[in-house]
Amino acid sequence: MRHFIFFILIFASTLVYGKDASPNEKPENFFELSANSLTGKKINFSTYRGKVVLVVNTASQCGFTPQLKGLEEMYKKYASRGFIVLGFPSNDFKQEKGDNTEVQKFAEKEFGVTFPLFDKLPVSGKDKQPVYQFLTEKKPGLLFKDVSWNFEKFLVNRKGEVIERWSSITKPSSSSIINAVEKALEEPL
Q1: CA 23 to CA 27: how far, in whole Å?
Q2: 3 occurs within a structural domain
Q3: Of the four, 12, 44, 122, 136, which is 20 to 30 A from 149 by CA?
Q4: pLDDT tens digits for 106-131?
Q5: Catalytic residue among 35, 38, 52, 62, which?
Q6: HEC string of the chain?
Q7: Domain assignment of residue 150, given as a range
Q8: What is the largest CA-CA distance in the chain?
Q9: What pLDDT, in 10s, does the model give residues 147-175?
Q10: Is 145 annotated in the active site?
């Protein structure tokens, strides 16, 4: 009987979601994901479809926190060409003690951040949020699959593919990141 019920559920999901859908299906494209903003509003990443996206896990009390300034400068420089930075605060490394409101106020006041920031959630370990499950599956690190520190960066092209990953020590102004972003911006959809 349980097998029959499972079959009916799969069949019903196929009718509702499409022929290949399943309740446990993993997204193949970054733009299929969503996350809650710091204010609690659900943001479907389909709104970023066609943009080049730099995803960064952030923390307010980290030695790399000044990178927020460079990320904001990059965002402003390339936004008109279809570029966006998405920040994901996390306390995985015990350097983001504030709640969502405090995180937002700090980023705006200290570094003038205007790019979107999302709900403070884990980016590593067994409880990591779906966005980071996707990113680390598509682009595992050299030594570890998981994010190993604050301010790791993932670059997503206009097609929703994760094409690059950088460690925390790579500054937003590095030639490696700038060249990859510019190349991705030049690629057609």
Answers
A1: 11
A2: no
A3: 44
A4: 999 999 999 999 999 999 999 999 99
A5: 62
A6: CHHHHHHHHHHHHHHHHCCCCCCCCCCCCHHHCEEEECCCCEEEHHHHCCCEEEEEEECCCCCCCCHHHHHHHHHHHHHHHCEEEEEEECCCCCCCCCCHHHHHHHHHHHHCCCCCEECCCCCCCCCCCHHHHHHHHHCCCCCCCCCCCCCCEEEECCCCCEEEEECCCCCCCCHHHHHHHHHHHHCCC
A7: 27-186
A8: 60
A9: 999 999 999 999 999 999 999 999 999 99
A10: no
With CA atoms as reference, report the closest residue to 160 among 125, 135, 126, 133: 135
Q: Which residue has tokens 């060409």?
A: 81
In a domain, 21, yes or no: no
Number of structural domains (the chain) is 1
CA distance 105 to 29: 31
